[in-house]
Design goal:
The chain has nine helices and eleven strands. The chain is α/β, with parallel strands linked by helices. The termini are far apart.
């Protein structure tokens, strides 16, 4: 399988962290101010990388020998339109994953917004219906429903096949991919920091490098360009968080809810 380097952003806000996407401190950690986001784009552009593309525009593995770059955006917050505009101003395209139960709510994209993003050349994919926190631990029927219903809704909006998705909160497991494959999803994005891809359950599984508020533009550009030190740092952090989630699940959840004041 070819290598694909994918960067993961969420919302970009102007005045308040709650103006786009999910509310609360947990979500706010991944929301960038507009000036901060623009600085990230400037830094990434300065590395002379191939332009981020939509999924349908991925080059063939042998083309140029370079690792393609994908710019992905989770949740489907209303700031997706601003993000898309900033990408398009540079000739870039993004991959936008939509939480379909929230379409049309004040801080999320509308049906018309989704049509516009697609018409402008960006990829639209599923981020499930309800954004479950521990998707990998749901009953198989519920996992299947999260994918099937969200894909059906997006296809109804766009009038064509939707075959990409991303897993909420990093809770990926093989059954998640197997259920996704049965609903026609071909490209499934996780939160594992890797550019390696593999197939499972009929899906191409792709990792992503996560960007959060306060990350320096230089570090974001290092992730986008595959600098070894930046990649190693993200990998170490991801492994430690995965271990905490796996071996201290209830304690991890309680601490997370207490710190971020989650219900």
């Amino acid at each position: 399988m070819m290598k694909i380097r994918s960067i993961l952003y969420h919302d970009v806000v102007e005045q308040s962290f709650d103006e786009s996407g999910f509310p609360g401190l947990a979500a706010a950690r991944y929301k960038l101010w507009r000036a901060e986001f623009d600085a990230h784009l400037d830094a990434i552009a300065s590395r002379g990388l191939a332009a981020p593309v939509a999924l349908h525009a991925l080059p063939q593995p042998a083309q140029n020998g370079a690792t393609p770059l994908l710019f992905t955006v989770d949740d489907g917050g209303v700031s997706a339109l601003h993000i898309a505009g900033r990408l398009a101003s540079r000739g870039w395209r993004g991959v936008f994953f939509i939480t379909t139960d929230h379409i049309g709510e004040p801080t999320f994209v509308s049906r018309a917004d989704i049509v516009r993003l697609h018409a402008d050349g960006h990829t639209i994919g599923s981020h499930t219906c309800s954004h479950p926190f521990r998707m990998s631990e749901l009953p198989p029927a519920r996992i299947h429903a999260e994918w099937a219903q969200s894909i059906a809704k997006l296809q109804d909006i766009l009038g064509e096949r939707v075959d990409s998705a991303s897993v909420p909160a990093g809770f990926y497991a093989p059954p998640v991919a197997e259920a996704a494959g049965k609903t026609g999803i071909r490209w499934l994005f996780t939160s594992e920091p890797t550019s390696a891809t593999h197939e499972h359950g009929g899906c191409v599984i792709l990792g992503r490098y996560s960007v959060y508020r306060g990350m320096s533009p230089r570090y974001a550009a290092d992730l986008a360009s595959g600098r070894a030190l930046a990649i190693a740092g993200q990998t170490a952090l991801w492994k430690s968080k995965k271990a905490a989630k796996t071996f201290a699940g209830p304690v991890w959840d309680q601490a997370r809810r207490r710190i971020f004041n989650l219900k």
